Amino acid sequence: RVAGRAPEVMVKITGRTHDPGHLRAHLDYISRNGELEVEDRDGAVIAGRAAVKELADDWSAIALADSRHRATTPFSVSVVLSMPADTDPTTVRDAARAFAREVFAERFDYVFVLHTDAEHPHVHLAVRALGDQGERLNPKKADLETWRQVFAQALRDRGVEAEATPRRARGVTRKSERTSLRKIRERHEAGQGEPA
Predict the structure, then answer these.
(1) Contact 77, 12 (CB under 8 A)
(2) Alpha helices of 15-125 — where are they, by DSSP H?
(3) DSSP string spanning 139-158?
(4) pTM
(5) Alpha carbon 45 to chain centroid distance?
(6) What is the CA radius of gyration of the chain?
(7) DSSP single-letter state for residue 116
(8) Over its length of 196 residues, how does the chain's per-residue pLDDT go in tens digits?
(9) For 179, left (φ over 0), alpha (ψ -120 to 50), or beta?
(10) Most buried residue among 7, 67, 171, 196 by CB atoms closer than 10 A?
(11) How far apart are CA 34 and CA 172, in angstroms?
(12) Which residues are 123's β-sheet partners?
């Protein structure tokens, strides 16, 4: 698959929420203010702004009730799963569902939603940082490698050629541009500010 240049999956932690307002804003963003249906780990669909607010309130209450909670303790971890533009969005969503079930369902609550408004079909996954048994989600680099493997396998199980080889195995030694720096550069190129 690597020699045949199978598309590489992308699994990226895009951030963490740290307070009720931040969590609510993130869930509003991924659900497009309740316009997109969000699916939870039980397969239930959360639709509408009121339902998204209720979910944010529930997760916030759980996080704040934890006696170990500090100001820097995350409420949720945000993950994006993506594939190249020519990949069927429904298949990406189904593979993301299988990925989330395998990686998180036994220990952490989560919701996910498919976005097709960008060039690449991608799924936003919000995972509650406090697990069912009180454990905390704190992914490391090795976890991300494993997650990429699981997502690639879920896609292959659905007939999509996908690979999750490490950058160094593909001969890529330079990291891609950080999202925050890319956005600053793009704003500058569009004449909307000075570069940092």
Answers:
(1) no
(2) 20-30, 49-65, 89-103
(3) --HHHHHHHHHHHHHHHHHT
(4) 0.83
(5) 18
(6) 18
(7) -
(8) 444 467 899 999 999 999 999 999 999 999 999 999 999 999 999 999 999 999 999 999 999 999 998 989 999 999 999 999 889 999 999 999 999 999 999 999 999 999 999 889 999 999 999 999 999 999 999 999 999 999 999 999 999 999 988 755 544 556 677 777 888 888 888 888 766 5
(9) alpha
(10) 7
(11) 39
(12) 81, 114
Amino acid at 113: V
The residue to which tokens 């490698």 are assigned: 145
Cα–Cα distance measured from residue 195 to residue 145, given in angstroms and rounded to the nearest whole number? 32
Angle between helices 89-103 and 141-157 in degrees, nearest 10: 130
Separation of alpha carbons 34 and 13, rounded Å: 22
Round to whole Å and give the CA distance between 158 and 6: 14
